[in-house]
Amino acid sequence: MTNFPISSPTPVTRETLYSYLARLASNWQTDAVELVYDMGASFKRLLDQDGEAHELFARWAKLSPEVMAEMLSWTGVRAGNVRMEFRGELYVSRALRNPVMRGCPMCLREDAAETDRPAHEVMAMRGDWQFREVILCVRHGHPIVPLWRVTALRDRFSIGARLQEIAPDVLSGAFDQPMRTPSAYDLWLDRRLEDGSDPTWLADHPVFVVTTLCRLLGQDLLNEDSIEDEHISDRVHLAGFNIMRAGEGAIRDALDHVASLAMDAQDEPSKTFGPLYTQLNRAYLKEPNFDPFRNILREVILDHWPFADGDVILGQTLPQRRLHSLRTAALEIGVGTTLLEHFLIEAGAIYKNDPRPESRRLFDAQDNAELLAEIPTLVGPIAMRTAMGATQMELIALAEADVLRPRTRAKKVKKPWRVSDGVALVSELSDGAIAVDDDDTHWETLLRACRRRKIGLSDLIERVRDKCMTVGQRNGEVGFHGIVVPKSEVEAITPKPGTIHGTDSEELRGMAAAAFGRSVGLRDGGVFQALIEAGHVSARRIINPRTKRKQYWMEPEDMASFHLHFVTLTTLSAEKGLHRNTLKGLLASGRVSPFSPDGQDFGAVYLRDDVIKVAGLE
Q1: Are residues 207 and 229 in the same domain?
Q2: Is the separation of the CB atoms in 101 and 162 below 8 Å?
Q3: Are residues 393 and 440 in the same domain?
Q4: Burial class (CB in 10 A: 0-12, 13-18, 19+), 80
Q5: Which residues of 361-381 are buried (b: 16+ CB within 10 A; e: fewer)?
Q6: Would 542 be classed as within a structural domain?
Q7: DSSP assignment, residue 83?
Q8: d(Cα 165, Cα 76) in Å, to the nearest integer?
Q9: Residue 608 pLDDT grade (very low, low, confident, very high; cuts 50, 70, 90)
Q10: Which of 454, 425, 453, 458 is nearest to 549 (CA)?
């Protein structure tokens, strides 16, 4: 045991207790283990941060309570099994305790330059070097580099012995790396650790949380795996910090951007957000200080992926589904994705020609819940006719007159009808009907009346609805086909062909756009209306003076303009006297495609200029 009356060295700024112990031991010409034993404790008790051992150390080294507290704050004090208090805040232990001990070689070399004593006896290990998110010495602009790697705590924190081993390399510059200007992240972190000051939005959040998220978010933003750069860690932390310090809105926008790039079917949140998702979902799931940022990521995920009610996302159970994908919705209601796609496109929930896979074509689940519930209940034309007691031609006529609308007009959908619509229409029209003998020739069905006198079916039905016409129900005939009207009353309402007279005596020349569309073979009223609304076909919007409904109306000039610019198989067949199948073959061989600007589907309508280039159709 040594008893030399040697004074204790002055602690270096930010020095750790174990570093100071090594320098103190060298002053007394012994090692740390022997010196602690002389103090009346043991090196193990000091490593275990025994409170009594700390008191003995401070008293023996003549350190004031303030100096000792400062040194311990840079060393890190155990605060539970996996927590340490460091600079007044709680950290996960592994963020400060690592087999790899790091430091700034320039700081160590500067320590040795101030004395003629052996370098390892005066070099001091700073506490901020322990923190894994510290990547640069702000004072020298030198990266914090690995100095030694030792697993056993006793050997790892025998600072004097380890420094003696590496001192020659430190002095020769073997640890030196290219210096750089401290970034905003480096300066912010150095100041937070020094005195806790922080002018940014991050001031209310712990250093450990912020720095961890700077790294994880930066990895997402820079796609770290694809970058080969010795300064990647610098770039990662800075990229994340620049977003983090701007606040919640900026963080949300950055994560939204990352999510928007997830285009493949396999791009689930865990893959898209990588370590950020994994760490918030596992390692830090029980850490409440991460909750504000976990909540932001959860909201982004729920805005970009179709999770179902009951699914657990980042530790919380989703009470109600927000989004469906084409695939999840099809599975839920038990239909094919191709069938469902027609309905969703028509409803405006998804877009046609979307290149994304079915699992990434998303739509609002609540806004479209009624549609999804209804699709499995729809029926085909045979079931619809049976339910409403109508013939095939009557159902077709009702649809063409827009009196009875299918849930979708997509031609590939084989079951577009709502039984409730047909039953309700029959019930409405037959309300108050009088009984008519089945052989009474003074009455006729609605469709026969329209065809005989060239009356619009919708017009006739409007009169029935308005109670302007007597309605009968043939005995023994249930449903729409049994509804009849008096021939005498039909004769009285026959309009003049080709015109509609308004209440202001204005005469409208021409015909309804829907009727014109049907006349040229475009029976899907929605498609022809789309041509008008896109500005490709001229028509004007009117209120039909008889039905009081808004509709597009085409005057002779509008119809002539259509024929000047466009053709259909119907009009082309009439012009050339060729069968439709023949025309289809000619158009296909001439590679003439339907009119489809910007990929919009307007059905089988062609530009006349394209068609006349085909041989035989000049």
Answers
A1: yes
A2: yes
A3: yes
A4: exposed
A5: bbbebeebeebbeebeebbeb
A6: yes
A7: E
A8: 25
A9: confident
A10: 458
Looking at the domain assignment, is residue 297 inside a domain?
Answer: yes
Asked, for residue 40, whether it belongs to a domain, the answer is yes
User: Same structural domain for residues 102 and 141?
Assistant: yes
Domain termination site, one of 172, 204, 229: 172
- pTM greater than 0.85: no
Residues 30 and 160 in one domain: yes
Residues 6+ apart with CB under 8 A from 440: 474
Contact (CB, 8 A) for 306 and 296? no
Running DSSP on this structure, what letter comes out for residue 379?
A: B
Average pLDDT of 394-410?
A: 88
Q: Is residue 144 part of a domain?
A: yes
Do 165 and 36 fall into the same domain? Answer: yes
Bridge-based pairing of strands 472-474 and 483-486 is antiparallel
Give pLDDT tens digits for 472-500: 999 988 899 999 999 999 888 755 444 44
SS3 of 141-152: CEECEEEEECCC
Cα angle, residue 332 at apex, residues 329 and 336 outer, rounded to 5°: 65
Q: How far is CA 404 from CA 350, 412, 422, 446, in A?
A: 25, 19, 7, 14
Domain final position from 341, 361, 377: 377
- The edge-to-edge listing of strands for the beta sheet with 443-445 is 434-436, 472-474, 483-486, 443-445
Quick one: three-class SS letters along 232-298?
Answer: HHHHHHHHHHHHHCCCHHHHHHHHHHHHHCCCCCCCCHHHHHHHHHHHHHCCCCCCHHHHHHHHHHH
Longest dimension (CA), the chain: 135
**Does residue 197 sit in the same domain as residue 276?**
yes
Position 1 scores a pLDDT of 45
Specify which of 164-178, 403-417, 492-506, 565-579 reaches the highest per-range mean pLDDT. Answer: 164-178
What is the extent of the structural domain holding 270? 184-306
547 falls in which pLDDT band (50, 70, 90)? low
Measure the CA–CA gap between 376 and 77, rounded to whole angstroms. 64
- 41 plus 162 within the same structural domain: yes
Number of structural domains (the chain) is 5
Residue 505 clears pLDDT 50, i.e. is over it: no
Predicted confidence band of residue 507 (pLDDT cuts 50, 70, 90)? low
Question: Do 163 and 21 sit in the same domain of this protein?
Answer: yes
User: CA-CA distance, 600 to 533, in Å (whole number)?
Assistant: 12
What burial letters (b/e) apply to 577-602, b meaning 16+ CB within 10 Å?
ebeeeebeebbeeeebeebeeeeeeb
Residues 187, 238: Cα–Cα separation, whole Å: 11
Distance of CA 131 to the CA centre of its chain: 35
The secondary structure of residue 472, as a DSSP letter, is E
